[in-house]
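Batch job 17 of 40 flagged for manual review because the log was empty.
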Amino acid sequence: MPSKADEEARHIYDKKVGSFIENTPSTIRYADVPWPCDGTAEDMVAVMLSGEEEQNVIRKRIKELALFWHPDKFFLRFGDNLSSQDRELITDAVLDISKQISAFWKGNDSEMQCT
C-alpha cells in the first residue's frame, strides 16, 4: 500500500504536468520541466507510479508516462522552447526517465500479462 507521502508526491507531480502542458514557458529551463522529484530516474518513475496497485491501471499509467517522456514526443512538443543553456541537461534527464519507464515496463510485462 502506498504511503500518504507517495500519494501526495504523485498528486503534486500530476498537477505540475498539467500546468506545464497548459502554460508551456516560451523558454523552458531545466527547473521548468515537471520533474517528479529530485533524485534518480528510478526515483522519478517510482513517484509517477505511486498510488497504483491494480495491474490494468498501472499498465495504462505507464503508457501515459511513456508518451509524455518519450524523447521523440517530448522534443517534438517542447524542443523548440528548450533553453540552449539547459538543452543537454534536459535531454539527458528525459532520456534517463524514458529508459527507466521502458525498463519498468519490460520488468513487469509478464506479470501484467498474467492478470
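Reviewer: the log was empty due to a logging misconfiguration, but the result itself is present. The chain has five helices and no strands. Unflagging and moving on to job 18.
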